[in-house]
Design goal:
The protein is mostly helical. The protein contains 11 helices and no strands. It is 77% helix and 0% strand.
């Protein structure tokens, strides 16, 4: 980062009102308060992404801290013309979390059942599926279509970071039942989102054609 004239420094309060691109410009110029703004805006997003992959709050927080340290060191590489700050951060979060997961697997930190569940989660909750608002809307709709047991199991796994054993204790159910609720619910979620997305894609051209004839 280049040297920065203190007299031209934008205050933290004023930085909060700027968009991501201008905040990153300030960080690239050496304004360290800009980094605090980036951290404030995106700490939770990076942490949740790491938690979805690692299933462990402490490990996810370690990765989150590493991601932001790396972002600080490599701020000069950010180019708004190539993508948004949010996408840039998510790419780092997903990559570093996946690398850390592989490291933990080598150390045999996870059981085979947990690894299978994590793999399923990663394929479903990858950044390319998390980013669009449409996917979030469809996911919310799909969750409501699940049975109560499936919905609660998936919410506990994804959003509370619980593993199957913890969910079984919380719900006072057998481990095998929890596992069934999870995989069956995830399958239905995926099917619902894929089918709804395809239906809306087919309907969109028809809507455009009607608009042209009006």
């Amino acid at each position: 980062m280049s040297s920065y004239d203190y007299h031209d420094r934008i205050s933290y309060t004023d930085l909060l009102a700027l968009d991501d691109e201008r905040v990153m410009q300030q960080l690239q110029m050496g304004n360290t308060d800009a980094f605090a703004v980036v951290f404030k805006r995106y700490h939770r997003l990076v942490h949740v992404t790491a938690l979805h992959i690692l299933r462990d709050a402490a490990e996810a927080e370690d990765v989150t801290q590493s991601v932001f340290l790396e972002i600080y060191r490599k701020a000069g590489q950010f180019d708004a013309a190539r993508g948004t700050l949010k996408v840039w951060l998510l790419q780092y979060a997903y990559s570093r979390s996946t690398n850390h997961l592989n490291y933990l697997l080598v150390r045999h930190v996870y059981s085979k059942t947990e690894v299978s569940a994590i793999d399923e989660a990663n394929s479903f909750w990858s950044p390319t599926r998390l980013q669009p608002q449409e996917t979030s809307r469809l996911t919310a709709q799909a969750l409501e279509a699940l049975s109560d047991a499936q919905r609660q199991t998936i919410k506990m796994f994804f959003f509370e970071g619980l593993d199957f054993k913890e969910i079984a204790r919380r719900r006072n159910e057998k481990f095998s039942n929890v596992r069934h609720h999870y995989y069956r619910g995830l399958q239905q979620l995926r099917s619902y989102i894929d089918l709804t997305s395809k239906r809306e894609e087919r309907e969109q051209p028809l809507s455009l054609e009607r608009g042209k004839t009006c």
